Amino acid sequence: MRTSWKSEEEIMQIEGVLKNVKEQILKQPQTTAQFAPKIEQYLADEDMRCTFLAARVIHDLTRQCPGAMAILSGEPSFWHKVVEALDKCLNDRVAKEMARTIYNLTSKDGQEGKTWCRMFGVQTDGLRVLIKMLNATVDHVVFCSITSIHNILVKLEIKDEEGNPTSNAPIFSKFRDIQGPAVVARKVSEKILQTRAQNENRSQIDQKMIQSMAKFVIICVDILRCVSFRNDATKKALLHEHVPEMLVELLYRPVALPSNGKLGLYITRLLKVLSVCKLNKPKIVECGGITAIGFVITNCMGDPAVMKKVLLHALLTLRNLSDEANRQPKQADNNSILDAMTKIIASNVDEGIKTMAVGILYNLVCNNCVNKAYLVNNTNSIDLLLHIIGSAKDTRGKSTDLLELATSTLKILTNDMTKTPQDPAKRAQAQIRSSKERFHVIYYLFCEKTPYFDNEKSSTISSCSSLIYSKEASSMIKISYPSSKQS
């Protein structure tokens, strides 16, 4: 039997004392250090009711008295007691008050926010306790804890303009050492399954819950991106926790509304990090990652505000994955991504984006007759590639990467490797020879020796030489074409 259990009268007296302490601090913030020991005393009390009353006072002060918080920001020992109380807490109400307190402080902007993140991430054992709180039974405690973890990691170590973390930062090492990535991965997977199960049992989908869940997933995914960036051990741990499969499924069956571009952006950014890992790359492709990212690109192209943010990350991910796609014959159904790349090439995006799109097409059709046939038979890729090549005659200087990739891709599409009537190369060749405009794009480059090709890149011209030197082309060559001498 607990001898420390207090009577209702004692609890009321303690509540009065703490109320008076709060009022004194609100009136005179400079007295905070004087009254802090009294708060600590009740915070450490074995009676959870006393702990709750003290935790509530601290939470109220974080919202109502910046002056008091400025003083307490220099008192690690006080916050060590707060973290210790949260660690020992078995009461949901108490955990909620303290989790909200840490959330409020770590969410502050600027240098003040960094100071509090350093307090809970470095100067106290807050990071470990927050990870522990992810297993709380109260959703609000879980959300405050995961957001506080994200605040600590991001505000302390995300420094460059692209939002890439310092991979070997001490705070990340600490997070990894206490198994943070695995806990977060398991928690987000658990929450996704829980949310879907709840919605399947309801006649109407709870949109508020769905949107809240989407926010939770975004925070978790960004944490995983930060700690796995340039860290193979963490990437391997995420593979063990089935994170690639979870991410791909989220792109197919989003937790939030399908139009939630922010969710797609954060998932794609994590996939980009994992796609350079030799262990994760095959798994992403195997579970349908290529097609899933194709859906993301297709959807975002209808929303200019989202497209600019998502497209670059999606294309970089596909570039990393596209060579693996050809090593897995069973994953040959890449129609959605082939369509998406074709749309990008036809759009008005900048040359860098277009170059990546053509490079992805090149990887997907190389040694893959299924993709090659789809591209030739179901898209206008031949004309798009010819347009890129034809536009080169308006440039000066060296051949661009875009031009190199365009001619190399066209060479694959027109190369009759199998020597059979069913090979799509026959159709591609016939399409080019079907009009003098198409044919003379190639003929002009090959015969005119245009100045924008240097000797080192003569392979660009020779890539399509088979189209010039063939029986079928003989009649096309006779067609006059304005030479550079006439201009």
UniProtKB/TrEMBL annotation:
<dbReference type="InterPro" id="IPR013284">
    <property type="entry name" value="Beta-catenin"/>
</dbReference>
<dbReference type="InterPro" id="IPR016024">
    <property type="entry name" value="ARM-type_fold"/>
</dbReference>
<comment type="similarity">
    <text>Belongs to the beta-catenin family.</text>
</comment>
<protein>
    <submittedName>
        <fullName>Oidioi.mRNA.OKI2018_I69.chr2.g6709.t1.cds</fullName>
    </submittedName>
</protein>
<dbReference type="InterPro" id="IPR011989">
    <property type="entry name" value="ARM-like"/>
</dbReference>
